[in-house]
Amino acid sequence: MGEPDGAGPFEPQTTADQADDDLVARRRDVRGGKRREQILQLLQTVESGALSVEEIAERFGVSFATVRRDLSRLHQDRHITRTYGGVALTGPAELSIHQRHLEFTAEKDAIGRRAAEMVADGAVVILDAGTTTEFVARHLDADDATVFTNGIGAINVLLGNDDVSVVVLGGRLRAVNQTISGAEAEHMLHSVVADYAFIGADAVHPQYGVASRTLEQSRLKTLMMQRARQIVVVADRRKINTDQFNYWSPTPGRWRLITDDDADATALSELRAVGADVELVSPLRALTEPTTLKGSPS
């Protein structure tokens, strides 16, 4: 008995059919690749850095099965870490300086205001780079102060403050966070013993100290703390007790942490146990108290 006409169940696929299937597969892969890229971008914008499968499925209008396939691919590529019911970035994403200026502005303003109040007339200050330390520069009201800084943001602010002498620490500029670091900056600081060092942080941890994005930044931050009589770390609550970084500067035996009053109490207790004098500030007070900042248009 002969085979019926037409394509049987075991008939080999034609070249044209295979080409059509390949085209569909490529289109699906392109769509999937774009969606996975968008998932990573979305993870970078949420405060917690984590999302559930349900949130991702709803956001992109796809099934849970599709989301799980995307997450498996991202996990294989080591972009994400699987959590119970969802995913998180493998490490904290580094935002651009513009993005960081838009985050936790009220908290940074309150922290910077309190830090600047500590500075007496005629003081010598080391001011680390960062968006929080930039607020220290904005609120600085001491007469005849000298500021050594590696932060482009702080430099721009202090250009408008005639009562402050600014010394720019030299070295290599890292554009993404507008930070200068390197051997030249370290060499300059070896000749300084400052009254205060205001230190920015990507994270603050009781065991490791203060985190930086690069080894160069970490080396300079460590030296800044060694070359000052009073060390003040300025960091909002997101930075407290996070250990997802590779480069750390140890804190001295006694130091001060200024953070906002929503910081985790347990984490703060652990920092106090290793020598931190913790001071909490209220962002709401900073928002309701009018002020004219030196270096800012009135």
Q: How many distinct beta strands?
A: 15
Shape: elongated
Strand content: 15-25%
The helix-strand sequence is HEHHEEHHEHEHEEEHEEEHEEEHEH
- How much helix is in the residues? 40-55%
Extract low-pLDDT stretches.
Answer: 1-10, 22-26, 285-293
Rg computed from alpha carbons, rounded to a whole number of angstroms: 26 Å
Strand order of the largest sheet: 6-5-4-9-12-14-15
Count of helices? Answer: 11
The CATH architecture classification of the largest domain is 3-Layer(aba) Sandwich
Main beta-sheet annotation? 7 strands, parallel
Measured distance between first and last alpha carbons? 97 Å
CATH topology of the largest domain: Rossmann fold
Structural class, by secondary structure, is alpha/beta
| CATH level 1 class label of the largest domain | Alpha Beta
- Determine the mean pLDDT: 83
Total domain units: 2
Organism: Mycolicibacterium hodleri
Keywords: Transcription, Transcription regulation
Protein name: DeoR/GlpR transcriptional regulator
Domain HTH deoR-type: 34-89
Give keywords.
single chain; 298 residues; Arc Repressor Mutant, subunit A; Rossmann fold; 15 strands
Task: Explain how this protein is built.
GO terms for molecular function: DNA-binding transcription factor activity. This is DeoR/GlpR transcriptional regulator. The chain has 298 residues and is of the alpha/beta class. Helices cover 40% and strands 22% of the residues. It is built from eleven helices and 15 strands. The strands form four sheets. A seven-stranded parallel sheet has the order 6-5-4-9-12-14-15, with helices on both faces. A hairpin with a 4-residue loop joins strand 7 (172-174) and strand 8 (179-181). Helix 5 crosses helix 6 and helix 8 (183-189) runs parallel beside helix 9. The protein is elongated and about 65 Å long. Residues 1-10, 22-26 and 285-293 have low confidence and may be disordered.
